[in-house]
């Protein structure tokens, strides 16, 4: 098991949760009316989706539960931040989104490392489910 991937998974998950997800969740009603809506979904729905990714997916990532599945919403969130919302900004302004994006893609490719919750016993015998949950 790769302990480097474990450190990356837990570090990114904890940082995303504590620095980005929880503050947005705590200020939801204040932020919602003017939250950016780069995909045209509405500010409230956009904020809700970002909070779901940054809180729920980050928490599951920290626990190591469904690692490859839970990084997908995080990759989408950081991809939208980097390529759409901050597209006209200088790299220094969008660097954090790029670093998160790079880390989450690395986890998608490499897996979650060691020390994670495993679902091998309760998953049906489907190879793609085992790939997503147990690597």
Comma- or semicolon-separated keywords:
135 residues; mainly alpha; 6 helices; 71% helix
Describe the overall structure:
- The protein is mainly α.
- It is 71% helix and 0% strand.
- The longest helix is centred in the first third of the chain and has 24 residues.
- The protein starts with a helix and ends with a helix.
- The mean pLDDT is 89.
Short note summarizing the structure:
This protein has 135 residues and is mostly helical.
Write the layout of secondary structure elements.
Elements (H helix, E strand, L loop, with lengths): L2 H24 L1 H4 L11 H21 L3 H19 L5 H20 L16 H8 L1
Helix pairs in contact: 1-3, 1-5, 3-4, 4-5
Shape: globular
Instruction: Report the structural category.
Output: mainly alpha
Low-confidence stretches: none
Radius of gyration over C-alpha positions, nearest whole angstrom: 16 Å
Number of helices: 6
Return the average pLDDT rounded to an integer.
89
